[in-house]
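One record is given unchanged without comment:
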Amino acid sequence: MRDRSLRPVPFFLLEKEDSFLYDPVMNRNSSSSQAADSGSEDSGDGCRQLQNHNYLLPENLEGFSIYMVGIKGTGMTALAELFTAEKADVIGSDVEEVFYTDAVLKEIGVPVLTGFHGEHIEGGREKSSAAGRRKPDIVIYSAAYDPEDNPELSRAKELGIPRISYPEALGILSARFDSSAVAGVHGKTTTTALAGELLRALDLPATILAGSAVSSFAGRSTLRLGSKYFIAETCEYRRNFLHFHPHRIILTSVEADHLDYYRDYDDIRSAFLSFLDRLPAGGTVIYCADDGGAVETVDSIAGKRPDLRLLPYGFAATGPYRVMDYRVEDERSLFRLAGWDRTLSLRVPGKHSVLNAAAAVALTLELSLEQSGGENPNGLQMDAIEEGLKHFSGSKRRSEIIGEAGGIIFMDDYAHHPTAIRTTLEGIRRFFPDRRLVVDFMSHTYSRTAALIDEFADSFGEADLLILHDIYASAREEAGGDVNGETLYRKVRAHHRDVHYFPAVMDSLVFCREQLQEGDLFLTMGAGDNWKLGRELYKETSENGRI
């Protein structure tokens, strides 16, 4: 096997034995023209195999021209960071709306063109008077965009420029490293971010890619510590993670989600089974023993793949990563792992965060054992892990404290699935037992809301006061059907004594001003844009000294 540890951060040409990627898009509502784009074949399992990617990313990226469609997405910006670090020539396009990634792209010197226009993709090798750049060598596009319905991607196809999606590009990267994937319906971003913090604490040569900005990554979603290991958050939507080439997988949770694509729980579980089956002989699965779906999925793969190493973590686990003696003191979670006689501390709330920490510790120590040739961690290494956990301050939109003003804590969280909502609120309640918990929630996608509406209705029990809005539609769907924001409000009202409905987010601003008081914790929650409300209220309160 190739010794990858001797390579620089490796964006390489795929070897023949690696020269196929799975395209899960072909499994749902895809035309044959997509398969024709790259000389692909249907593999028979609803995925296409891309057989002719002879020329994708060269060993030396210096001067290699990469155009990125939808570059402001967190994952796309992360790729741009990694590419520019290797001196690639990167440019991209996106909508006019400003995101936090705009600042990152500006900082790394990547131009962003506004809108999607065919003329952004040049027609020749000469310099373009419009963009001042030559025709790109490759176009990478966000999975949010249909390659057959985007002017830039259509133009790239006309010009014969290779086009690959973000999941495909991430898969190519992973094939060049000793890679580990973080997978699951919940907890991926925090687990990945924690792993990055601990890998840095142990000075292991790794590159980490998380699904959101991480404060300890200098506000970015990537952390570059070296080129031997690659740890990345992977996405189960449309089976996108089947592009990834893992040596190890953290499996946090499996349950029904993305029901605009997956039929039901069994369908999404089959995707996770396929992903586990991509592990090489002797690969490792680090799984949450507290999650029924994860346990069921691992039990299934164990029968098919007895060669895999199975490492459970959690309160219900056996072995060294069993969580013990969990308690909350002074707004910190304290706990022990069965394999080590020391108390660990975490300042992000919730038992779910402790589970994420246990997973990150397990992965970090597995890599440390490999790096050291099998030596068990010594006291200094465990000290470093303890300090890494103690100082971890979370990631963007994961129980993120925006600030405190007028005696009110303003917090924002991305939880948008009933299970995540419930566990997050329980964790916050336990961290802040003396504060009134005011929650503003915006549901994300009509399909998820309709499929899980009864679960949503019963997931806000810890909120003292609840505010709801219209559903925030994803780019892949339109409003329709029998379920909308008001439907959810009526369902929730049957379970909650103090719930209010404002269709537009900012329509609730005056109500919030009247209701909030000193000692409250105001939490915006969901994958919509209601985070703007919390920031506006925090800004006003900070300026006035009171709400």
Observations:
- Residues 351-371 form the longest helix (21 residues).
